[in-house]
Amino acid sequence: MLIQDAWGIVLCLLLGILLDLALGEVRKFHPLVGFGNLANAIELLLNKPTADRWTGALALCLAVLPLVALSMLALLLAQYFSLWLAAISHFVLLYFCLGLRSLHEHNAAIATALQTGDLAEARKRTSYIVSRDTENADEAYLAKASVESVLENGCDAVFATLFWFILLGGPGAVLYRLVNTLDAMWGYRSTRFLRFGCVAARADDVMNWIPARLTACTYAILGKTRLAWQCWQRQAPGWPSPNAGPVMAAGAGALGLALGGAASYDGVAEVRPPLGEGDTANAADILRALRLVETGAALWCGVALLAAIFLSGVIHA
Fold first, then answer.
1. If exposure means fewest CB atoms within 10 Å of the residue's CB, which of 9, 151, 216, 287 is most exposed?
2. DSSP letter string, 104-133
3. So where does this one cross the membrane (predicted)?
């Protein structure tokens, strides 16, 4: 990786997280929004009725590889001039890829609306972050949707991003977030995307496999550990996604909540496998889920710091 040592990784990790917490999501000209526009243009160009998985693979490469190569080139140029400039470039790239503060802002707004009895506002806010129907939803339905979103996006927007940053630096975080964005845009089992989007979906599954299980372990450690482990083992195999299953089952168990079950998408009712065990979610549980993710991020920083201390001791022994 392009960061010189373990202490450099920890420093960039902490600065990237602090920058995200201080500034939050870029309000205008966010790089991922621009990437989404690029992905839409590529999809319109290549996703014809005759498109297959090879076309999807080509589309993924055209969307992702030039931007990852550009980020690596920029870092190499920065490193040529100054190691400090390279370090700044690394944690700025991490900042653009992280979504810790935005995850809190979007979901805390739902919790606030529910706590003040503003169901219309809660429905509107929830519709921003989930694809399920919210027009006639009650508090329990909205709270469940928000908690599930926090748990799942805690992996995608926080822990998996940190994992790939620790492994490959800024370009690793960029690579992961671009692939994850393409999965969110193309990874549907619909007539339009079934063949074209399957490569993006599989690439995201591969890149998320280890981070998802580390996220599930993080939730279990910080919550009701035994219940989280039991729910993970029993319920994750029945969930459609190989990575969302462990994350959400362990997270629901850690919080002692009963999630999953019935949901409506475009007017069609869908009964999903159960997640977790315990109470029905409410507004306060949204804040509990956010604390779980935020405490988990702090735990990862602590583990990274301890690892740096250990590696430094080994190197100088």
1. 287
2. HHHHHHHHHHHHTT-HHHHHHHHHHH-SS-
3. 54-76, 83-103, 157-179, 297-315
Q: Name the 3-class secondary structure at 256.
A: coil
Q: Which residue has the tokens 């496999």?
A: 209
| Amino acid letter for position 263 | A
Question: Are residues 176 and 161 in contact, defined by beta-carbon separation less than 8 angstroms?
Answer: yes
Spatial separation of the C-alpha atoms in residues 287 and 110, rounded to whole Å: 10
φ, ψ at 265 (rounded to 5°): -125, 115
Q: Does pTM surpass 0.70?
A: yes
Evaluate if residue 244 carries a pLDDT over 80.
yes
Secondary structure (H, E, C), 194-243: CCCCHHHHHHHHHHHHHHHHHHHHHHHHHCCHHHHHHHHHHHHHHCCCCC
Contact (Cβ atoms closer than 8 angstroms) between residue 148 and residue 244: no
Helices (H), the chain: 6-23, 31-46, 53-81, 83-97, 100-115, 119-129, 139-153, 160-186, 198-222, 225-235, 244-255, 283-316
CA distance 271 to 276: 15
What 265-272 contacts at long range (C-beta under 8 Å, 24+ apart), as own/partner pairs, is 265/131, 265/132, 265/133, 266/133, 267/133, 272/239, 272/240
Locus of tokens 């992280």: 98
For the stretch 113-118, contacts whose Cβ atoms lie closer than 8 Å and that sit 24 or more positions apart, written own/partner, are: 114/139, 114/142, 114/143, 114/282, 114/283, 114/286, 115/283, 115/284
d(CA 192, CA 98): 30
Pair of tokens at residue 114: 């529910």
Which among 145, 153, 149 is positioned nearest to 280, based on CA atoms? 145
In angstroms, rounded to a whole number, what is the distance separating the alpha carbons of residues 232 and 248?
8
97-152 residue pLDDT tens: 999 999 999 999 999 999 999 999 999 999 999 988 899 899 999 999 999 999 99
